[in-house]
Design brief:
Layout lengths: L1 H21 L26 H17 L4 H24 L14 H10 L1 H4 L3 H24 L8
Helix pairs in contact: 1-2, 1-3, 1-4, 1-6, 2-3, 3-4, 4-6
Length: 157
């Protein structure tokens, strides 16, 4: 379960680090800055193809380092980004602004989607998936504040 939690942290942390290191370079928004019929962005400017691709690549490397295949890691990274897009989509439909805080919604989908889909290949039981999601939720809140203090993250959440 620790390895799976590490993959969640790597997948979801990579776009944040990439944003700090690369600023706006290659940061093409997934929604191409278009708006949904409700007038809000589909996802928001922080959801980029760069973040998705780098999450897949870095998570693939991390998977290799801990004994999984690179393919499992790449798929895991993609699924984490799908979960992140899902939470962003829901927040936009609720009328929440880009970068607004939604505890739970900001953490659960990006951990639950990859862990639930990949539970079998990772050898996880359902209760381990739940524990890993809860641990990610807690760690993400703590690490976000640390990354903010280190000027890596733009918001403390």
């Amino acid at each position: 379960m620790i390895e799976a939690l590490l993959l969640v942290l790597v997948a979801n942390g990579t776009p944040i680090i990439a944003d700090r290191l690369l600023d706006k370079r290659y940061a093409w928004p997934v929604d191409f800055n278009t708006r949904a019929p409700d007038g809000n962005p589909w996802f928001g400017e922080s959801k980029t193809y760069r973040g998705m691709v780098l999450a897949m690549i870095v998570t693939a490397v991390a998977a290799l380092l801990i004994g999984y295949s690179w393919q499992l890691g790449a798929l895991f990274g993609l699924l984490a980004m799908v979960g992140d897009l899902l939470s962003s989509f829901i927040k936009r439909r609720m009328g929440m602004s880009v970068h607004s805080q939604a505890p739970g919604l900001d953490q659960v989908p990006e951990a639950l989607v990859p862990l639930a889909v990949m539970a079998g290949p990772l050898g996880l039981q359902w209760y381990e998936v739940i524990v890993a999601v809860i641990l990610f939720w807690i760690l993400e809140l703590l690490l976000s504040r640390l990354l903010y203090k280190l000027h890596i993250r733009k918001q403390p959440y």
